[in-house]
Amino acid sequence: MAKKTKGNRQQIILECTEHKASGMPGTSRYVTEKNKKNTPDRIELKKYNAVLRKYTVHKEIK
C-alpha cells in the first residue's frame, strides 16, 4: 500500500546531476518530502553521493 501524504506535503525524488552526466553505472537518489504550498518550484539540495564519494547537487525529478 502506498504511503498517503497529509495536506500539502508531497513525496519527491532527488537525483544526482553529476552522476547522471558522468555516464557511470547506477544512480544516486534520495526520497524526501516537501510542502508544495511553500515551495512550488523544483528544489536542489547538496547531498552525499557514495559512488563519487563527495557532496553533489541533487535535483527534484518527480
Major sheet: size, sense and barrel closure?
4 strands, antiparallel
Helix content: under 10%
- Relevant CATH superfamily: Ribosomal protein L33
Return the CATH topology: Rubrerythrin, domain 2
The succession of helices and strands, N to C, reads EHEEE
CATH architecture: Single Sheet
Helix/strand-derived category reads mainly beta
Which strand order does the major sheet show? 2-1-4-3
Roughly what fraction of the amino acids lie in strands? over 45%
Overall tally of structural domains = 1
Alpha carbon gap, first and last residue = 20 Å
How confident is the prediction overall: mean pLDDT?
A: 90
Low-confidence segments: none
SS summary, helix count: 1
Describe this structure in words.
Helices cover about 10% and strands about 45% of the residues. It is mainly β and about 60 residues long. It has one domain (about 10-60): Ribosomal protein L33 (Rubrerythrin, domain 2). Strands 2-1-4-3 form a 4-stranded antiparallel beta sheet. β3 (about 45-50) and β4 (about 55-60) form a beta hairpin. The longest helix has 6 residues, at about 15-20. The mean pLDDT is about 90.
List keywords for this structure.
62 residues; 45% strand; four-stranded antiparallel β-sheet; mainly beta; Rubrerythrin, domain 2
Helix and strand arrangement:
Elements: E1 9-16, H1 17-22, E2 29-35, E3 44-49, E4 54-60
Antiparallel strand pairs: 1-2, 1-4, 3-4
